[in-house]
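Table 4 source record.
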Amino acid sequence: MLTKKFRFGSAWKLMAVLSLVFFFAETMVMFLLPLLPVLPNWLENMADATLMVLLSAPAVYFLIVRSMKQRIDELEPMSEKLTESDRLFREMAETVEEVFWITDPEKNTMLYISPAYQKIWGRTCESLFAAPRNWLEAIHPEDRQKVLQAALTKQSRGDYAEEYRIIRPDQSVRWIRDRAFPVKDSSGKVSRIVGVAEDITERIAAEKKFRTLLESSPDAVVVVDAEGRIVLVNTQTERLFGYTREELHGKILETLMPERFRAGHPGLRAGYDAQSPARPMGGNLELYALRKDGRELPVDVLLSPISTPEGPLFMSVIRDISERQALEAQLRQAQKMESVGRLAGGVAHDFNNLLTAINGYASLLMDALPKDDSKRQDVKEILVMGKRAAALTQQLLAFSRRQMLATKRVDLNEIVGGTVRMLKRLIGENIKLETRLAAHPCMVKVDAGQIEQVLINLAVNARDAMPDGGTLVIATKTVAMPDEFFRNRPSLKRGPLVELCVSDTGEGMNEAVLSRLFEPYFTTKEMGKGTGLGLSTVHGIIKQSMGEIEVESAPNKGTTFCIYLPETEAVTEGQASKKTGPAAIGGDEVVLLVEDEESVRRLVERVLKGSGYTVLAAANGREALKALEVRAKPVDLVITDVVMPGMNGRELAQEIASRNMSPRTLYISGYTDEAIVQHGVLEPGLAFLYKPFTTDALLRKMREVLDGPRDQAKA
């Protein structure tokens, strides 16, 4: 029955059953002993001892053994849990990419190292257990002492976190980030050091690439945290704002803004969260930044959020647009000047045609009148006014850069020296003129007469700015300018430059006047004391000479004009042009005259016929070609206007040359055209006469062309 009722699942249950059996057996013996005969003492003592054991067995079981069983039963699940935890730890440690390690700091032994060690270090875990010093020897020699010192001092404190390099057996280098944490026993003593090491080689490479990109950026890069405090800047930020990295770190972003923008910016910054897309800041508003020295500068700003484990960051890419705004202003000014110049050039062209006829017919009339005729004085006045009008058109053409320049290599010092005497008479005795010329030649390729005109105009301008006297200084020197100078002046040829500066100690000018200084007909002088074309003419001449002109001035601090021209090589003796004597006037050659302005055409035809030439006259290219077809044989010279409706003068001359109908061409015009010039300089090998011309100048130029080589009068 008992065997059926009890199912013995353990030794403890068996002991309990046996104890009960012994208990019942002992009870029966106690009742039966009195009925037995007297026993020997030794047998009685043995029986008593046996009975005591049998009687104490249940108590031992219930008081000691059972309590031990209960304790063991309680510890058994805990042991199972510890075994499970150990299994889970090992599974985790052996599957993650980081290296887990445990050491005994007292014995200085490695207790555990995860298999990732073999992958990262390239060494077996067994080798590290066998020789723990292999860990230190694998560290790069340059990092070894630093890491060893940190391990000895920081691991037990819990602040060990080092980045260092290791050298693998194949000599490749990896970057490691190693962290350690102390484990203390119940007495507070550090009994274990637990750590994790990860391979950060790719992160270091990415950071290096990021740093390279950051530092090579031409723009300032400022990174701020969610509170608007600066956490990172690049070198360009230091250059742009004048602060060092250390000075900027931790400061609020508003430090880099003018005072008037600071109050409202935190609210705008708060509205730009980590989910916002990268975008320009400010929309169509003009943005300004503030340098350490207090100077403001216009900027463009691009905002971009950055997500990091530590929280959102915000990157501002800041570009200084001072140069761009200056170039845009220059472009607007150039476009305005170009428009006005085109208008002025067109007016001058038409006016020159009129002046050619007026002055030409006046000259013919003067020649026809007897020397004692009272009308000669009237004609003389016409010629004087015509000459003044021609000078005015020259100024208009100079401003519009449409005049013809007779450029050659000259020493700027010689031009200045040659005009000093005239300038002294021009500015008066109450102004002292000083020249500070370079000790060596300052060779430039310019029209010497036009540069003289520049000096005259600047001297007159300085004289008017010093009504009570002062000093005028003209200085020359050669200079080498940095790349930035040429970037801001793209039309100026890079290389050595000759600088011509004209300075006065006069009244100076304010910003409003400076902004309009080179505009035609702009003047601050009283009515009748200035045309407003002087400085615009200077500007046009210098620009047409492929140079630049700069001006510095302030009220009561005088004015300095500095002209920059590309330096050129000196003229060799063989290159110097030879002067010829005056050419004979008149001839008997056949000339084809093509001029669309009827008054000019009739005048030239009359002058040429009067000088013995045979003239075929035409109003345009089509008529000219038809006249040649009718003649059916070549002419000696083609005289043609350049700017004509339909076929221009250059196209006509080339067509005639292709038909072998004329060996020489003389171009006439009151307006330079890109058909025959580049930047106002006549194309080599072309003959040209500028309107308005005198009849004498026309006849001399014709003889020069007819008697000269053909390659100097090509079509």
